[in-house]
Structures are given as C-alpha cells and as structure tokens.
Design goal:
Strand 2 and strand 3 (about 80) form a beta hairpin. The protein is of the alpha/beta class. The protein has a 17-stranded mixed β-sheet, with no helix packed on it. The chain has a 6-stranded parallel β-sheet with strand order 12-14-16-18-20-22, with no helix packed on it. The radius of gyration is 31 Å and the shape is elongated. The N and C termini lie far apart (about 110 Å). The protein contains 5 helices and 32 strands.
Length: about 475
C-alpha cells in the first residue's frame, strides 16, 4: 500500500513539473514568436522618413518599443500596433498573423503598398483595422470575415480593386466600414444588411454600380451613409427612410432617379446633411424640409440638391432651418423668386442657385447673412438693381452673371470686401462708369464685367489688382 501511495505521489510530482515546464517553455516560445513577428513586420518596411522604428531592436523588450502595446493580463503578448503617419514605405508582412492577440492595427497615412495579406483573417481577436491613405492594391481579403470581433474596418484611400466581399456581412459587431476612394467595382452586396451594429458606411468614389440594396434599410443603427461618386442607378430604396437614426446621407454624383420623398424629414428626424446632387432626380424640393419639426430645424446644416431635374419653387418656409450653412440648388428647373425669408438664415455660408429660371429681384434681406462667403446666382432671369445691402457682407465669391440686372455698379457693392477672389457681373444690363473703388479689390483673381452697357474707358487703377487668367 505504501509503495502504491509513494508511486502515486511521485507521479503527481512528475506531472506537475511537466506541466510547469511545458507552460513556461510555451510562454517563452510565444514570447519569442511575438518578438520575431514584429522584426519580420519591420523588415517589410523599406523606408521610414521619421526614423520612428529605431527603437525596434533587441536592446529593449518589444513591449517597450514605440507604438507597440502589450497585454497586462497576458504578459508579453502584443495587442496593439499604431504607426499612423510615420512616413513608412513598404509592404505589410504576412507574419502579422503570428501576433495572435492583436486587437488594434493602425497604419493609416503611410505609403504601404502591395496586397493586404489574407493572413490577417487569422487574427480572431482583432477589433480595429485601419489601413487608410496608403497604396494597397489587390482585392479586399475575403477572409477578413473571420475576424468576428471586428468593430472598425477602414480601407479608405488605397488602390483596391474587385468587388466588396459579400462575406463581410458576417461581421455582426462591425460599426465602421470604410471603402471610399478605391477602384472597387460590382454591386453593393445585399449581405451588407446583416451588419446589425453598423454606424458608418463609406464607399464613395469607386466604380460601384447597380442599385442601392433594399437590405441596407435593415440596419437600425446606421447614422452615416456615403456612396457618392459611383455609378449607382435606380431609385432611393424606400427602406432607407426607415432608418430614423440616420444623421448624414451623401449619394451625390451617381445615376439615381425618381423623386426624393416629400416627407424625408419626417422619416429621418435626426438628419444634419443631405447631399443628392448630380443625379437624375425629379419633382419639387421636398416640402417637409421647410416644414420640418423643431428637432430637424435646429439640426440640419447642409442641403445639396444641385444638378438634377428638380422643379417648382424655393419653399418660403425654408427659413425654419435656422442652422443651415450650405444650400445648393443649382442647375435645376426652379422658377419663381428667391424668398425674402432667406435673409433669416443667419448661419448661411454658401447660397448656390445658379442655372435655374429664377426671376424677380435679389432680396435686400440677403444683406442680413453676415457669415455668407459664397453667393452664386448666375444664369437666371433676375432683374432690378444689385442691392447695396450686400456691402455688409464679407463675400469671397460673387457670381451674378447672365441675368437681367440693371443699374450701376455702386461704390457700396465694390466695398463688399477687399478679400473678394471672384467678382463676376458679366452678361447683364449694368450701366454707368466703372467705379474707381474696384482698385481696392487687391486680392481678386477673377474680375469680369463684360457684356454689359458700361461706358467710358477702363480705369488704369485696375493695375493694383492681382488678376489671374
């Protein structure tokens, strides 16, 4: 019995020693693997303009290397690499796969090239992958869908090609998907509707075609949608109007058609920006924008409906949008007058109404827009004199060309700002001599008063102006 008991104790001791040795060796081995993987990562970098990776050497432990973070719980395991804006040139080493505890990889604003190694799909703890503003080529790795804990995937501003992998729809925790400014083709996959946690979708400036998938409206959490500068066609899916959390939508510069829902601000009460310019939309300016709830009236600051086939008049109650800073309606088929109430939009920086069929006079109330920098009313049927109230503004660009404006170019008008860069009154019926105050526009780059009924000789003081062709 004693022999058996002694044998049992002896066996337990041997097992404990074995397990301790195995765990220790395993830990040391993994510690070495993380360090070697970082060295292999550094070897993929051919140039670093700032010399920030000089600390990546054996003189200090890799957990103390600049831009490397290790876990407190799992000692000597690398959990984060942040090399943003370090002037790095090179390729991303596939050895990054060996850093199995990685949660955060941020390499934005560098010059990494080559393909994104598919090995990243083996980083099952990865939560943040930011590779934006580099020169990565090839396709978006399909097996990124294996990183089921991923919350941020930012590949904006690279040279990626191919389709958006439908497999990305399995990333149920993803909150930010950034694919803009690449060369992606094909359709937006319907599986994108499975990204139940998505807040930001940015896929603009690619070559995407087809329709905006109806399934996108299934994402109740999304706040920001940017799909501009693609080749998307069809209508705005009705499901998008169900996303009450939507804050900003930019679908400009596509081939979309149909109408913008008249009750868009009712369905999207948190909207701060709406950009649908350069499409084929028809119908009037959505009535709900000017009859908006108090919530939307205080929030929305950007509306761009230009270069479509929108008709009707500018809603007089647009004055309700008290925080509006940018309003673009140019190159449509709008008629009627510019509402006097426009002068109540005291936060306005840019009014862009060119190339319509607007008539009547320029409202005196525009002189109340003391923050206005850009006034584009060109190519309409506006008449009457240019209001002297504009003299109170600090305008940068003034383009009132191709209208039926009459009267003289007044001293007050020229006094609007010595900082004016563009001053275009051509193609009207203005009379009298050019005021000598034009010489005060010392920063003007474009001065055009041609095709009017001005008389007299060209003042020689224009030599003070820094005119450019």
């Amino acid at each position: 019995m004693k022999v058996l008991w002694s044998f049992f104790i002896h066996s337990i001791l041997i097992l404990c020693i074995y397990l301790w040795c195995h765990t220790t060796v395993s830990g040391l081995l993994q510690n070495e693997i993380d360090g070697l993987a970082l060295i292999a990562f550094k070897d993929g970098i051919t140039h670093e303009s700032l010399g920030m990776l000089s600390s990546w050497n054996e003189s200090i432990h890799f957990c103390h290397w600049i831009s490397v973070s290790c876990s407190r719980r799992h000692v000597h395991r690398v959990v984060a690499i942040n090399l943003s804006s370090y002037g790095l040139v090179g390729s991303l080493s596939p050895h990054i796969r060996k850093l199995t505890f990685l949660r955060i990889v941020i390499l934005q604003n560098n010059s990494f090239h080559g393909e994104i190694p598919p090995h990243i799909g083996g980083l099952f703890h990865l939560r943040v992958l930011v590779l934006s503003n580099n020169s990565f080529r090839g396709e978006v790795p399909t097996n990124l869908s294996h990183c089921l804990n991923l919350k941020v995937l930012n590949l904006i501003d690279n040279k990626l090609i191919g389709k958006i992998p439908k497999e990305l729809g399995s990333l149920s925790t993803l909150q930010m998907l950034g694919l803009s400014i690449n060369n992606l083709t094909g359709k937006i996959p319907a599986s994108i509707g499975n990204l139940a946690s998505l807040i930001t979708l940015s896929a603009g400036d690619n070559h995407l075609k087809g329709r905006i998938p109806e399934e996108l409206g299934q994402i109740a959490t999304v706040e920001f949608i940017q799909l501009s500068y693609n080749k998307l066609a069809g209508i705005i899916p009705s499901s998008l109007y169900n996303i009450s959390s939507l804050d900003y939508i930019d679908i400009a510069s596509n081939q979309l058609e149909g109408t913008i829902h008249p009750d868009i601000s009712v369905f999207l009460p948190h909207l701060t920006g709406l950009s649908v310019s350069e499409n084929k939309f028809i119908g009037p300016v959505p009535s709900s924008l000017s009859n908006a709830s108090a919530n939307l009236s205080n929030q929305i600051n950007w509306i761009s409906l230009g270069i479509n086939e929108i008709h009707g008049t500018i809603p007089s109650r647009i004055e309700n949008l008290v925080n509006l800073t940018f309003l673009s309606l140019q190159s449509n088929q709008l008629i009627g007058t510019i509402p006097t109430s426009m002068g109540n939009l005291h936060e306005m920086r840019a009014l862009v109404f060119g190339r319509n069929k607007l008539s009547g006079t320029i409202p005196l109330s525009l002189g109340n827009l003391t923050l206005l920098f850009y006034l584009y009313l060109y190519d309409n049927n506006l008449s009457g004199e240019i209001p002297s109230t504009l003299a109170s503004l600090t305008l940068i660009d003034v383009i009132l060309s191709k209208n039926n404006l009459t009267g003289s170019i007044s001293k007050e008008l020229v006094d609007i700002s010595t900082g004016v860069l563009v001053f275009n009154l051509s193609g009207n019926a203005l009379t009298s001599l050019l005021p000598w105050e034009l010489g005060n526009l010392i920063n003007v780059a474009n001065l055009d008063v041609s095709h009017n009924k001005l008389s007299g000789s060209l003042p020689n003081f224009l030599g003070k102006c820094s005119l450019q062709s």
